[in-house]
Amino acid sequence: MADRVLTSVPTGPEAAPALPPEKHGDPLHAPDLLAALDRGDDAAVRAWIAAHVPEPESLLMYGLFLGAGILGLVEWPAVLLSCLGQLVVDRRFGGVENLAAELRSRVAALG
To answer: Is 0.85 surpassed by the pTM of this model?
Structure first.
């Protein structure tokens, strides 16, 4: 395995399997909230909320970071950076579960 060097993303039969579908929609493609409220379109309002509310796993992480800051286990700059990092994970990878699935698929492709 030491002789294998990754120089690019594999595209052939070695390619990683597809990630699971996101539970929440993309916030950039969510329906317009104010227009949905004006129309009384409950489904569009629920779609907007689902696209903008983090997964329960991410909310747990935010809560743990904030709890550690309140208890004084971690300094506030570290809490803010951790929350910012979690926000990046949520926006870039679609949440904690999708990031874990992507990392598992990369490890499986190497092994």
So the answer is: no
